[in-house]
Each structure stands twice: as C-alpha cells, then as structure tokens.
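testing teh design pipeline on a random one, pls ignore if ur not involved
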C-alpha cells in the first residue's frame, strides 16, 4: 500500500503548479513596472503563499486539514477570480499580458 494515495498526490501537484504559476504571474507583472498591476501582483503573491501553505496540510491528511480545506478552497477561488478580473482589466486597457 502506498504511503500517499493518488488523490492526495494529485491535489499536492495541482497546488504546486498553482504556486509556480502565481509566482510567475507576480514576477511578470512586476517586470512590466506598471503601477496599475500592483493589485495583480499582491493577489498573485497572496495566492501563491496560501497554496504553498496548503501543501503540507493536504499531505498530512489530518482532521484539521479536512475541516479547513473547504474554507481555503472558497478563499482561493475568490482570489483567483480577482486575479482573472485584474488580467481582464489589463487586456481591456491595452496592457499586454505576460502569460
């Protein structure tokens, strides 16, 4: 029997990918030097930090983790929605997207 089940591995991999994508988005926005991207940078950094914090919680599979994850998922969806809105605003204003 594997120490970590396939579903847990899948969730951890998804979270790790999201951490990398959020960090890359923040870095790309910062490189552009546009003050209007400050919101997107902050949101991407928040998202990356929260997702990174979730990885060990998901991996341990404790009852605390199981009880906490629904609220965390809702919060992450809200943050990601705000990032998408910030990107949409950049496109609408003619600011090129890095990703």
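output:
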């Amino acid at each position: 029997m594997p120490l970590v089940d396939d579903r847990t591995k899948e969730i951890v991999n998804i979270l790790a990918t999201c951490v990398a994508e959020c960090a890359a988005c923040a870095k790309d926005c910062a490189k552009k030097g546009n003050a209007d991207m400050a919101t997107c940078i902050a949101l991407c950094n928040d998202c990356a930090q929260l997702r990174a914090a979730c990885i060990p919680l998901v991996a341990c599979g404790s009852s605390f983790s199981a009880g906490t994850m629904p609220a965390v998922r809702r919060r992450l969806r809200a943050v990601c929605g705000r990032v998408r809105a910030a990107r949409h605003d950049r496109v609408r204003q003619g600011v090129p997207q890095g990703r």
